[in-house]
Structures are given as structure tokens and as C-alpha cells.
Protein 1
Amino acid sequence: MKKEFNTFYKDKRFFIPILTILLFEAILQTGIYSPFLKKNSYAANVNRITNHILNKQTEFDPDILIVGTSVAYQGLSVKILNEKVHSTGLKIQSIAIPGSEVIVQHQVISKSLPKFKKVKLIIYVGEVLIPWVSQTDLSLPTLSMISEFNRIDAIKRAYNYDYDVRAEDIFYILSRSIAYRRDFREFVLDPNKRLKHLKKMKKEPNLNPWDYENSYNEKISSYNVKTIEECKAKTSQENADPIPISSNAEHKIALFKTCALAGVTSTESKQTDKTNLYFKRLSQLFSEFQKRGIKTINVFAPYSTLMNNLGGKERVELWTKELEKIQGKENTIVVDMQNILPNKNNGDYYYDIVHLNMYGMEKFSEALGDYLNKNIRTLIP
């Protein structure tokens, strides 16, 4: 038996596949595949955004950094904000990441902030609803994004953030061949689509210092909805009505998804185990700013009037109370801009019920720019 066992392990047919797999994994660990990731996938987005602003640092080294999710990514124009504060000589950059939980933002900050030596102010764009939906499982989008940075830090941080870390989560974070397996499959099935995108990116590079400027002109008002239920009914796949001229299939799907999500979102506004978990995580992110002596202001972006029952002053009050615990009462600044857009024709300013379109982005950016101009000497002495 021992002889057969030794013969098996000395057989080249055993070693060659294993060595091939290990070599493939080693190549992936170099990051060589990152540029080939599917356009707008979570991993592709977090890589593109972070790398772009870091690569532009020599020509655009920010004094103010925006941190947040897609609400900040789509809702704020870095171009408009910089035009607003131009006279101060300060530069504003955004490192907001669509779909990012706090742990993802922490990973991004850990990579970028040490290189941005001039940053004096963080604009943290919070989503007022998020603390009540905190999760303990690591979702696939979160795993795909945190694993694009220091992977040992990602694992440690997942435990520090009180996630229920499973063995398969650790394998996903550590192994590129596991993390990219779905992406490989799509690439092999349709390589031309991926290569065309890469060719276009090379031919038409983004020359702006910032990664993104919202150009969506689609709006909720195209569907003339007054309630969440009406929104779901008019944008569901079962609805065979023609798509409005000012909308498209992609917009209709996005609107349905956000309305469906709002329909099942808790209206609770009191402190819960989930809110405690969220603010514990947020405190770890904010500690990165505090240890560098960087001031933070907390901004709430505009939400559609369809979401009026989900915002509420009680939730903002809890946010303020928890932020004061994290930052100290004297250092806590909350700028609530949830209601800065007019109630009349409110749907004209939103792509869906969570995200602004380009018209809403302009209004929000101008309002925040005015606030910064008015208070800049207090914010950055």
C-alpha cells in the first residue's frame, strides 16, 4: 500500500495540474487580470476609482475628500464643487464607492489616505437609512471589493467589524482564482465585448482628475408615480405599458429595484442591535481620520419625496447622538440636505428614489458648495 501511495504522488499526472493551478493563481495575484474585469462590476469599479484618483494625485492633490456610497458618487459633482471653492485655493476629490459598506470604505481609505498628505477635511455622505439594515454576513459585492486591497487586512477587518466570517469567505478573499471565477466565465463566453471596452478605454481615457460625472437625464417623473406601491406597479416586468420616451429599460429596472427595496425597508427609528453594529463599524472608519487630525463633516443627501416616511428627524437625531459619541459633541457637524430639493416636480431631480440624476446632482453640489464657502474658515482654520 505504501509503495502504491508513493508511486501516485511521484506521478507527473498528479503534479502537473496542481502546479498549473498554483502558477495560474500566482499570476493572478500580481493584479495582471484587474484591467480585464467586467465593466462596472464591483471589483472593477473599486479598482478604477481608487487607481484613477491616486494616479491623478500629482496634478490634483486634494485638501478635501468625499467618502460615501453611490449616493455621493452619483449625487455630487466634483467639477461643480471645485468651481464653487476655487477662490479658496482648496481642491476637492471624491473617493465614494458605489455599493460600498463601511468596511469597503475603510479598505479604500487605508490605501489612499496615507498618500493624500494635504487632506484636512472629510465630507462623509451618510445614508440615513443604512444603520437599520446592517448585516453580519459578508455579501458577495462586499467580498469582491475588500479583496481588491490588502487581503490580510481585509480578513482582520472583517473580524473587527463583527462579521460572521466563514471559511469560504477567507478563501474568496485570499484566492484570485476563486474571486474571479464568474468573471472568467463571462470573459470566455464573450471575449470580444470585454476587449472592445478595453480598446475604448485606451482610445478615450478619462483625462479629468475625478473619476465620474453624473450624466443621467432620466427621471422618476417620467412614470408619474405618487407612492412606492404605484412605482413598483408601473416599473415591474409584468407591466407591459410602453416605456416613456424620457426613460429606457435600464432606468425602469433601476427604479423598480429601489422602489421594491424601499417597500420592505423598516421604518423603525429607534436604537437597535443593527444600529449599534453600524456605528461601531463607522467609529473604526472615523478613527482613521481622527488619528491624522482630519476633521469630518457628516452630510445627508437629498432623498425623493417618495421616501419621506423612511427619513424622518428621529433617524437624524439618532445619527447625531451616535456621531457625538464617536467624534465628541464639539467636533460633530451634521449637514442635513435631505429636503433641499423642491416638493413640486421633485421627481425631475431623481434617477430613482435613492439616486439623483444630473439635474439633482447640480442642485445638491451647488448647495453643498455654498455651505463650504460660507463655513470654510471654521471647517479648515
Protein 2
Amino acid sequence: MEKLSVGEFQGQVLSAFKSFFDEESLSGFGERARSVKEGVLSEGRHRVVVLDLEKNGKSLKVAVKAFGRQGCLKDFYDFRKGSKAERSFKAGNFLKSRGVGTPQPIAYFDCWEGKRLVESFYLSDYVESLISFKDSLIQAYHEKADCRFLVARLSHIASAIRRMHDVGFWHRDLGNQNMEFQVSSKGEWGEVQFIDLNRGRIREDLSAKERGQDFSRIRLPSAFLNVLVRIYWKGNPPPEFTKEMLSRRRGFEWWERSRRW
């Protein structure tokens, strides 16, 4: 991992990819990420696109998350604690170093004007044909998959979440859309890839309450959620986990409804 300082950008890059990031390649990078029409993975306040980087006859396909501008209070926080891009990069490297699935972090770079964050980008390896847990559930419901199929998939997800928590990572935004995987031609799920890591926290050991908070944003019918939880805990969960999960779920559901007002 090396420091990246090119023109107006400051950040970090994995040593193996440093040659792709120089003044020429980063000139107009923000405009390119914001205006490209093909390879758009996500639109909104933060935009995620696929870009091909080329240097000295080599090419690198990356997923670029271009973070949107934010208010001065959040800029003040990020100036002290690190931008969302920086936190994503550090979290991704933490997970990869401990054998937890996430697309390989490549680099992050920010442009600051004083204490205002003007541009911010997180780059990771682009993994082909990922499907989210959210979309896979929609597909399974549409195809009226039997319970054995769904329980097997819940076991796959529960094991991945347990592994992430046990190495000391508290995701804090663990919705169905932030767990992705590839599906083989035989319908088998690959390793779960956790994404949108910028809210995460690294802990020596996660408490039951912190684990419960992560489950609070997973959207499943109550019976399947209970199955997921029991697989995760290999039995009944501790009371403090359940209390926190249900309390946070109610709060999050209220927040989601209030956004429509």
C-alpha cells in the first residue's frame, strides 16, 4: 500500500496498481466517472460505474464509486476521521486480509479545498456477474423456489455474516443489496461479497447488540429471518441480540416510511 499524491488528489493505492495512477490518467477522472453512459452500476447521490484504466499496454477494469458532495458538518467529520472513500478502502483491505469476501480494493483518492471535500473516489476490482441477495430473493420468490432451496441460501448468507463479525467488522449498513455473489451455471452461489463498507467499524470483538444492529436492515419474511438468525447463532440467539435487532428494525422501518412524506 502506497501514498497517492497526484495533482489535486491525495489518497492511497495498492503497490501493484500504482502505475495506473499518474497525472495523465487522473486528469478529468471525475468528469469521466460522472458522465460515462455505459457500465453504470448504480445511480443516485453516489454513482458507481465500471471504467477501464490503461497504462503501458496493460488494462485494469475497476468499479468506481464517485461520492457526492455533502454538507459542511459531514465534511468536518470526514476531515478528521477520513472520507467515505478512505474508510471504504481501509475496511476493504481489513476484510481481504482476514479472508472475508469483498471486491479487491485498488485505491481511493480525494480532492480537498481547505476543509471542504470537492471530489472523492473509491476504486475496487470489478467482479463480473454479481447478483445481490436482494435480487436473488426476488428471483426466488418469482420462481416459487421451495423452502429447502431458500434455507440453503440463508445458511450461505448466515455463515458469511458470522465470519465477517467474528473477524471484528461491524458493517452498520447490512441491507440485502450490500451482499453480492456470483452464481455458477449449476445455480451454486459463490463467496458472499460485502460492499458499501464506509459506515463500518473495526472492533476487537463485536457485542451481541452490535451484531443485532447489523441484522436489523436485512429484509426477510419473519419466518425466514428467524431461520437466518438461528443458523447464525447455531441455536437460539442471546436476548440482547434479539432486543436490539427488533428495536433497530422498528426504527429503520419508521425512517424508511418518513422519507416518503
Protein 3
Amino acid sequence: MLRHVSANTAVVRVTGEDAAAFLQGQCSADLRGVALTDALWLNRKGRVLAHTVIAKEADGSHLLLCPHLSAAELIAVVTANVIADDVVATDESALWQKWFVWGDAPSVAGAKVFATKRYGVVAWDVLAPIGAVAPGELAPLAELDAQRVAAGVPAVPADCGAHEFPQECGLDAWVSYTKGCYLGQEVMARIQSMGSLRRILRCVSGPVVVGQELKSSEGKVVGTVRSAAGQVGLALVSVDLAEGSVLGEVRMGVPAQMAAR
């Protein structure tokens, strides 16, 4: 069944002679030869500032979709290192109706439809002309997020934000290790070569709520629940906690993982 929920997605178009090269040198994804991809924006320490969908348009511009920042915040992140580059970021959020759609494939006249694996189910980001009729049945965002959590799919910033590395949270699919230099790349390369992580995002089961501290039998805090939906959740825990470990009533499961496009 086709279902939709309204989305507060920031939509920013990046243009200019230097736009492609600039974006390539700032985000974690390799934009060469792809029309649609997911990218992380990292700080110099390799922590996650933002996630965007990046779509290359026919005119050579790039459309950036961000579901968790305002357009002003996204533009600030994207253009933070513009100096003499011919790069212009324009807020186009008000030009579109925006939905997350899942179930059957949506068909909306004049819409831009981008497939996504962010929710663990077949889903799409949809940008439709103002006044377009929403596809399918209206549903709560909590329903879609519950499917994400049950599928063990991490989200930005709920599970991975300004204090986490992508690799801690199963977001390796959104990081290129071969594209060359970009902001945070040296840290990404060091993590890949040395594997020096102390935490991991795991699926957990039991009575969990967001923000819940998970403690060892000695009372030491060894993790925190980051996402929860009923009796399942995602928790950022010590790498020393193996699958099957039990903390109180909470059982550790497999690592969370974002699928590649």
C-alpha cells in the first residue's frame, strides 16, 4: 500500500563554475560519474555535521536534500569553506511540496522522485510542484521511523551526529575511501587502516527508550539508546559488548548498517 508523510526537507541548489569540484572536495561521497548519492558532511575531526541526498541535475547544478537541517543551516554547512570559489547555494525549499513515500512506487506529475534506503523499506524522497495531490494514504512519520529502527538502519542525527564517527554507526556506505581529499578524509582513512573505534551502534531488544543509559553489572555506563520503537532500538555501546550480551533486560543484537545505493 502506498503511504506518505509530509517532510520538512531542506532543498538547496548549488550552482557555479566551481560547484562540482567544490562539493567533491567537501562531502564524504564520490560524486564523479553518479547522478544520485548520499553524502555526509564532516568536521575536521571526522564527526558528522549533516547528511544530504545529492542529485546532479541536467543543467549541471546539484540539488541537495537534507531532512534534518533548515535550509539556512544546510547552506552554512555546505558553504563554510567557500573562499574565492564560484559557488552559489540557493534555498529552493519553498518551491516544492515534500514527502517521504513508501510502499508502492509514487507517480506524481512534475515531481522529482529519489529512491532511498534510509528507512529499511522501499521508500522515496519526493519533491512535487506546489498544489500537487499527495500520493497514497497519509501516515505518521513514527510508523516509517519504527520500520527503520526494526530494520537496524541508522539515522542522522538521531544515531550519528556531531559526536560520532560514521563508522561507529554503520554509515560506511556513505563514505568514500578512494576519492581523495575532502573535509575529514584523513580521519576516515586512519579509522579504515587502524580500526580504532571504541563504540558501535547495535540493534537492541527489550524495554528501551531514547536516552536510556545501559549499564554493566558493575553499574558502569557502557552505552546509550539512540533510537527506540516499542521493544526494539538502536544503541551506541562499547565495542567490547558482543552480540547476545544482556544488560539488565536489554539484549545486544547485530550492528546497525546503512545499505549502499
Protein 4
Amino acid sequence: MTTPETSDLMLPQGPETRRRRRVLVVTSNGSGMGHLTRMLAVADRMSDDAEVAIASLSTGVGVVGRYGIPYEYIASPSALNMSWTSWEPYFAGRLARTVDLVRPDTVVFDGTHPYRGLIRTLEGRDLHTVWMRRGMWLPDAPEEALDRADHFDLIIEPGEQADAYDTGATARREDAHRIAPITLLSEDDLLSREQARTDLGYAEGEKVALITLGAGNINDITSLQERISAWFRQERPDWRVVVTRSPIARGAHNGGAHGVETLRMYPLARHGRAFDAVVSASGYNAFHEWMRAAVPTLWVPNIETATDDQLARARWAADEGAGLLHIDGGERADLGHQLEALTDDAGREALRARAAELHAASVAEDGARQAAELILGCDVAAG
């Protein structure tokens, strides 16, 4: 992982190397990896046709180095303990230097709010600009950011399997190209259940539950995680319980306490079929990865996000019979009842079958590849 003052931008320079389009991806994410992971998926699909570099506010940006993609870490306001007013010029300066170094033909921004520093940096440059704008906004989320759509040549909205429950501001707009859901890995990248369990050391017949509630940088997941672990110890002592540790999680971590194992792996989805049951937050990437893998899941939406309507996704899955829903501290707050349903053999098989059925019926295309084709479909600037 690079520090705020260093980079891993190693694109070849000189006119003799200008044979392929250059794409600079800029992602938000001071507290998560959702935007970064989504654009890593798209960048990976573009790798044969373009030179891609990524500049991100996510402290986890170093993971893209595993894919051979050069990257730049630009610290967020919270990471630098700066106000937004003070940070915007800093961001604009860092981004301008990155653009000058990479010399891209196209700049893609993935985030819900195009920063003023981003707009200021792109203005006056001969660049194609793309906004990857996730839908499923909270109904009461501020809409001012949508007014900045005019600064982009193309807007792409990654698909939502739960789009029928999207009541946010983007659902009422017609300015975006809507594509299939984006997942980091293709179907061929996913390991079989047998291979995944072998890799992770799980015995045949052993029941394994995964708890993956996010980085915990927005909401406090510790108490809920401990309550779930305690329920398994008391009610399902024969189950093996594993808790994920996000690459960007901050603060103390006690996931390995009381016999609960800790798993730190990226991308986790490759081994997703190793698990018999999952308790997961319902952010964009996690939701579509677990639904595709058809692993029985208890969805625990993070209701403290600024824009992302995780509750709508989770509610859709529950209403469709493809998942269970627990709203911590709110309705459907009987955690024990939901965990009993999740660990019931017949119930899990029903959830698995329904999730597989819905995925087969509604997700026929690779959204990441569609996005890559749209981005590369722009004319390349001369020179």
C-alpha cells in the first residue's frame, strides 16, 4: 500500500508507447472498498485493450497491484484530518499531477459525488470523461451531486439485481447507460465448493458460517458480530465460525476471540462457495457476489450510509425468498430467530435454490465487460 505522498504509477512514457488507449480511473472510498473493487473489475476487463491506472481515496488501493495495474493513493479528508474546504485544493493538485503523469485519453470517476477538485482538474483538458454512478440511492439522499452530470461525456449505471426496489433519485433519471451488475470475478474465476474448502482447510461435512459485516469504518459492527458469534457458540457449537477482517478496517479487532477464526482475504468471492451460511452487509459488491454464488445469506444492511440503500437490497432478497433479513435495532430485530432459519438445512437449501434461480433469470451479461466496452467505445483523442 502506498502512502499519501508516494505512488506506484509506472506507465511507459514516450510517443512510441502510445499504441493503446490510456484510461485513468479515479475512485472515492475513504471508508470502504466498494467503488475501488467495482472499477478494478472493469479495469481487469480492459487490460487487453488499454493501459489502465487507478487513483483512489481508498487506503486499500494497494490490492490493485496484484492485478499488475499501477496506482496512486490520494488521501481522503478524514485520513488527513482536513476540512472539505481545505482538502479540495489538495485533491485537485494531486489529481492534476497524476493526470499529467499518466496522460490519459479517458478519465473514469466512480463515486456518488464528483468532487469540485475533480471537475476543476478535468476542465479545459482534451479528455473523454465518464461517471460510473451507482444507483440504489436512499430516497432522502441529497441530490445536488446529480447536477454535475453535465461535466461528463458518459454516465454508466451498474446494474442492480434488486432494481425493482430502487426508489432513489437516480431511478428517476434517464441520463445513464444501465448495464448488468458488476462483480469483480467472472463465473469461471469462482472455485468449486470442494476446491474452495480444500484451500481453506475445511473438512468434508463440516458446517462453516462466515460473518462479513464490512470494514466497520462507517458503523460499529463489533457488538453485532459478537452477538452472532455468541449465538453460534451457544446454539450451534458444532458449526465453525469465521469472521472476515477487511483490508482497510481500522481500530481494534477481536474477531479471533472465543474460538472464532479470522479470515483476511481479497477477493473473498473466489472462495465464496466454501461456506454453508453467510451473515453479510448488503453493499453493492457483497450483495451481488453472494447472490451469484447462491450461498444462503442473512442480510444485515448498514443503515448508516450516506447514499447507498442497503436496506432496499436486503428487503428485496428477503421478499423474493432468496435471503433472510435482520435490521439491527429495528424491525425484524429477532436475531436468534433469523440465525435459526439460516442454519436449518431445509431452509438453507430453499434459499440457495431461489438465489440461483433469480441470478440465472436476471443476470445474463457480464456488467464489468459491458462497462469496459462502453468506456473504450469513445473516440481516442489524437496525439
